[in-house]
């Protein structure tokens, strides 16, 4: 039987409907409109597309969004000054500074400067620490999107062996923590693999749930996957020749091996954006 294709676009649309209702309810009781501010430094093409999509998403659910576009040569001091003013501005609930940043700016310094209660990416060390301790304020958007795809698709994580490929601070590391946590979408036995892992395919072949977040086109081949495994593809790579978005897994080949799989595009990407909306509403609620 070919793999069930997990429709992230549809699941994200359902989520947005729920968020829109929650935003309306929040507004009815407080008169507050949640407000997300995105900062885009420079003119990276992919970043510009992502930020534009995000603005359209906000409009769909009744969240106000503002975009600050800064030139590529912006100094770190100037960016810090903008973030400080946004931190203090009560009408701003969520702040997202689009990554990557130009070379003259230290990303960690910038992420550390965002008020943790407005940190809708959940990249601030205080929020990362809270996730590690199992008492999150915000969950990072891409890992939360992956977890929600599993829950919405009825894929049991409890007791399952989840293998996470990739140890980034943005996806692999926090997702591993979340899958291990007690409760829905958690209680998994988690293995994290990375570029230095020995015997990689023996490990990935033990996965009931395999999550690929390494940023390498078609890295996960059919021989690395146990028949019947669920595969979540976090990769968003641009195919040099066709210009199309491709994931980290050999999708066509895995259709005959996996029990369920996410496509790229239309899998994790739309979920990431939906979770950002949810975090913005959470931030607005926190401000009350
Ligand atoms: N501070 C920060 N937070 C982020 O969350 C963040 C970031 N910086 N920098 C860049 C990455 C990347 N990212 C994506 C989110 C959604 C799609 C997405 O919606 N993808 C669609 C396709 C979009 C298209 O066609 O280009 C899909 O997969 O179906 C893609 C990429 C968020 N990021
Ligand atoms: Mg993300």
Automatic annotation (TrEMBL):
Entries under CDD domains matching the protein: NAD_bind_m-THF_DH_Cyclohyd
Reactions that this protein is recorded to catalyse: (6R)-5,10-methenyltetrahydrofolate + H2O = (6R)-10-formyltetrahydrofolate + H(+); (6R)-5,10-methylene-5,6,7,8-tetrahydrofolate + NADP(+) = (6R)-5,10-methenyltetrahydrofolate + NADPH
GO molecular function, one term: methylenetetrahydrofolate dehydrogenase (NADP+) activity
Keyword NADP: yes
Record's keyword terms, sorted: Amino-acid biosynthesis, Histidine biosynthesis, Hydrolase, Methionine biosynthesis, Multifunctional enzyme, NADP, One-carbon metabolism, Oxidoreductase, Purine biosynthesis
Family: Belongs to the tetrahydrofolate dehydrogenase/cyclohydrolase family.
Name this protein carries in UniProt: Bifunctional protein FolD
The species this protein was found in: Stratiformator vulcanicus
């Amino acid at each position: 039987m070919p793999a069930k294709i997990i429709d992230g676009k549809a699941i994200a649309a359902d989520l947005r409907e729920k968020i829109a209702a929650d935003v309306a309810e929040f507004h009815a009781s407080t008169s507050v409109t949640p407000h997300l501010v995105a900062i885009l430094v420079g003119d990276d093409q992919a970043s510009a597309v992502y930020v534009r999509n995000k603005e359209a998403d906000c409009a769909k659910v009744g969240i106000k969004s503002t975009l600050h576009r800064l030139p590529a040569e912006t100094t770190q001091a100037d960016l810090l000054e903008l973030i400080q003013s946004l931190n203090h501005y009560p009408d701003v609930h969520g702040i997202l500074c689009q990554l990557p940043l130009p070379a003259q700016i230290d990303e960690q310094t910038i992420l550390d400067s965002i008020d943790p209660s407005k940190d809708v990416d959940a990249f601030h060390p205080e929020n990362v620490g809270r996730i590690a301790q199992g008492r999150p304020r915000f969950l990072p958007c891409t890992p939360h999107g992956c977890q929600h795809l599993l829950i919405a698709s009825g894929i049991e994580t409890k007791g399952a062996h989840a293998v996470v490929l990739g140890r980034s601070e943005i996806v692999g590391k926090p997702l591993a923590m979340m899958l291990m946590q007690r409760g829905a979408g958690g209680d998994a036995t988690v293995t994290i693999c990375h570029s230095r892992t020995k015997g990689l395919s023996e490990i990935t072949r033990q996965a009931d749930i395999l999550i690929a977040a390494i940023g390498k086109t078609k890295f996960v081949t059919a021989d690395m996957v146990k028949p019947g495994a669920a595969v979540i593809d976090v990769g968003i790579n641009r195919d040099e020749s066709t210009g199309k978005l491709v994931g980290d897994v050999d999708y066509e080949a895995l259709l005959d091996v996996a029990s369920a799989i996410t496509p790229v595009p239309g899998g994790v990407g739309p979920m990431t954006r939906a979770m950002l909306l949810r975090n913005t509403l959470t931030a607005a609620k926190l401000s009350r």
